[in-house]
Design goal:
- The chain has 622 residues and is of the alpha+beta class.
- It has five domains: 98 residues, DNA Primase, Chain A; 121 residues, DNA primase, catalytic core, N-terminal domain (DNA primase DNAg catalytic core, N-terminal domain, Alpha-Beta Complex), CATH 3.90.980.10; 123 residues, Dna Topoisomerase Vi A Subunit, Chain: A, domain 2; 68 residues, Up-down Bundle (Pheromone ER-1); 151 residues, no CATH class.
- Helices cover 53% and strands 11% of the residues.
- The chain has 27 helices and 18 strands.
- It has a five-stranded antiparallel sheet with strand order 2-3-4-5-6, sandwiched between helices.
- Helix 11 crosses helix 14.
- The radius of gyration is 32 Å and the shape is flat.
- The two termini are 61 Å apart.
Length: 622
């Protein structure tokens, strides 16, 4: 695709898109009043929400990690894509056709990503069409044996890759996709004899991201003469990164947010079985272990409301690999903003087999009978010992104590100490002692790790911004609130007063530059689109500081209260300005008095009197 998107279209996309709706697809947001919403930051791990989105200002800002920007910045950051693709995605949401200016080559990286997504969409449509052909009968039969008829396969877009060598590649060529584009998308491979399909003679699952874009495919082996693995996934591409992908997230996202529950299973058919049985919050990883990127993706959707705690429910096979996966999940449990559980199928059946053998209700019951992941982990740690012997009981208690020592909640730890004591027939006090010893060992290990860290990096070292803007300093903090009032409630301060205040405040160079930019924008173009216009005038290093000011929460419940607060802040600043101006006039008066300039003295006295009257009026208006 040549050229760049017209500026007119970019502005129309910006104007027509509700930023809160877009961000809300990735982050659980709650109204904070005055058109602002809060949630947990999707760009760093946090327990308390410090991420703010303003529908009226068109900005997001995290008061924790300081990231922020406008609508386009958010989508670019969260999806790791370039600006042109951001605009195209948002335009697609609106059903809007973009126009492109001629004469430009466009962004190569963006074009490559866009072409991969287009190729994936075309491939998904091709595979889906092939699913109903006679050649796909073996694939349909396999799925039917697992309880998935055509109607069940349709919502998931299940397809079929023909057994021949070049069915897809030839089709994509007719649509204008080059050999290199097909290889880049992971749909084809180049060999000595030319280009050939990567997936052949397999059932195909399209893998979609949270925005419903097809980013890759999973393919299940059908024929015995297929020498490849049982499941073959798309290799890493510009849009497919297996450490980030969750199969089923496109279908489950809204229900996860609504129910505040996510079920993590192991395979594509397990996800299908859960959704068809009514467990519509199921997702699965794609050929990789459940990791930090997956956790961060789910944390964006899950709420931290203590009155309605979210639940993450894992379901793994009972074999050794599944048990190891469960223990990895336990080790990562603290990274979730949710309670974690383990659901184990009767007789070790996975959701797909359970649904086939015992029906939908059995799948729902399995999830309902979940157990805390901690309980599962403790039970597994003790299962390695012979609890019929004294030695085995002590060994099991020691193994469990290592896990109990990680529990921060003292009440919860006490409950599990009793659980271990009952399981091992040991005295409760002995279990408590073992837990205390394990806690000491863990603390010593942590201290040793700290001592071996970089000695030149002090703990809690200030960032450059913290050094420039120390909000623990009363003067700097007062200047921040003054800027908040000037920026967020501009109608509370006329330009003459703004100019006077600007001359006598803002000792911080950063705040001085921001105040100057706000004044210049208001003077030249007015208050409309103030935030965006100010950002365009500021150096990039000042953007985070400005967003902190622009997105700060004014302590008021409505617009009248916000304006009243701003007027109070501005009046106090103006009072200080008046005192500064009076002191300056007094100095001038002393000089005039020394020179015997009576007329000048009289004029200065009148100006001082006028300032006194102004100050009195401000104090009276409080």
């Amino acid at each position: 695709m040549a050229g760049k998107i017209s500026q007119k279209d970019i502005e129309e996309v910006r104007a027509r898109t509700n930023m809160v709706d877009v961000v809300g697809e990735y982050v659980q947001l709650k109204s904070a009043g005055s058109g602002e919403f809060k949630g947990r930051c999707p760009f760093h791990d946090e327990k308390s929400p410090s991420f703010t989105v303003s529908a009226t200002k068109g900005f997001y800002h995290c008061f924790g990690c300081k990231v922020g920007g406008n609508l386009f910045d958010f989508v670019a950051a969260i999806e790791s894509i370039g600006f042109p693709e951001v605009v195209e995605r948002l335009a697609s949401r609106l059903g809007m056709t973009l126009t492109y200016e001629t004469g430009g080559a466009g962004n190569a990286e963006h074009n490559a990503r866009a072409r991969v997504l287009e190729a994936n969409k075309a491939a998904a449509d091709f595979y889906r069409a092939q699913f109903s052909t006679p050649d796909a009968a073996p694939g349909r039969e396999l799925l039917a044996s697992r309880g998935f008829d055509d109607a069940a396969c349709e919502p998931f877009g299940i397809g079929w890759a023909p057994k021949g060598w070049s069915a897809l590649t030839n089709h994509l060529k007719t649509l204008g996709f080059t050999d290199d584009e097909q290889v880049l998308a992971g749909l084809a491979t180049k060999g000595d004899r030319g280009l050939f399909d990567k997936f052949r003679g397999r059932v195909i699952w399209p893998i979609r991201d949270a925005t419903n874009a097809v980013v890759g495919f999973g393919a299940r082996k059908i024929f015995e003469d297929d020498n490849g693995p049982k499941y073959l996934n798309t290799s890493e591409t510009p849009v497919y990164h297996k450490s980030r992908v969750l199969y089923g997230i496109d279908l489950a996202k809204r229900e996860i947010s609504k129910q505040q529950q996510v079920v993590v299973v192991e395979g594509y058919t397990d996800v299908m079985a859960c959704h068809l049985a009514g467990v519509t919050t199921a997702v699965a990883t794609c050929g990789t272990a459940f990791g930090d990127e997956h956790i961060r993706q789910l944390n964006r959707i899950l709420s931290d409301d203590p009155a309605n705690p979210a639940a993450v429910i894992f379901n793994f096979d009972p074999d050794e690999a599944g048990q190891k996966a469960a223990m990895r999940a336990f080790n990562d449990a603290s990274k979730f903003n949710a309670q974690t559980f383990m659901a184990i199928g009767p007789d070790g059946l996975d959701p797909s087999d359970l649904r086939t053998q015992r029906g939908d209700a059995a799948v729902v019951e399995m999830i309902a009978n979940k157990k805390p992941l901690l309980e599962f982990a403790i039970g597994r740690s003790m299962s390695k010992f012979d609890l019929a012997s004294r030695e085995g009981q002590v060994g099991a208690a020691r193994a469990a104590a290592v896990l109990l020592a990680q529990i921060q909640d003292s009440v919860m730890r006490s409950v599990y100490e009793k659980f271990v004591a009952d399981s091992t027939s040991l005295d409760r006090s002995d279990i408590a002692a073992l837990v205390a010893d394990a806690s000491k060992t863990q603390r010593k290990t942590a201290v040793a790790a700290l001592r071996t860290s970089d000695p030149t990096e002090p703990v809690g070292a200030d960032t450059e911004q913290d050094v420039e803007l120390n909000l623990n300093d009363p003067v700097t903090n007062a200047e921040r609130w003054l800027l908040i009032a000037l920026t967020q409630v501009p109608q509370a301060c006329d330009m003459v007063s703004f100019a006077r205040i600007g001359k006598t405040h803002f000792s911080s160079p950063w705040y001085k530059d921001i105040a100057r930019a706000v004044y210049q924008v208001r003077s030249s173009v007015g208050d409309q689109d103030l935030m965006q216009n100010v950002l365009e005038r500021l150096e990039p290093k000042l953007h985070a500081a400005f967003r902190d000011v622009a997105m700060a929460q004014i302590p008021a419940s409505d617009e009248e209260g916000r304006e009243k607060f701003a007027v109070g802040v501005l009046n106090r600043a103006l009072e200080k300005t008046i005192e500064y101006e009076k002191n300056t006039l007094r100095q001038d008066r002393r000089q005039a008095d020394a020179l015997g300039e009576t007329e000048k003295i009289d004029e200065i006295d009148r100006q001082i009197a006028a300032l006194d009257a102004e100050g009195h009026s401000l104090r009276k208006s409080r």
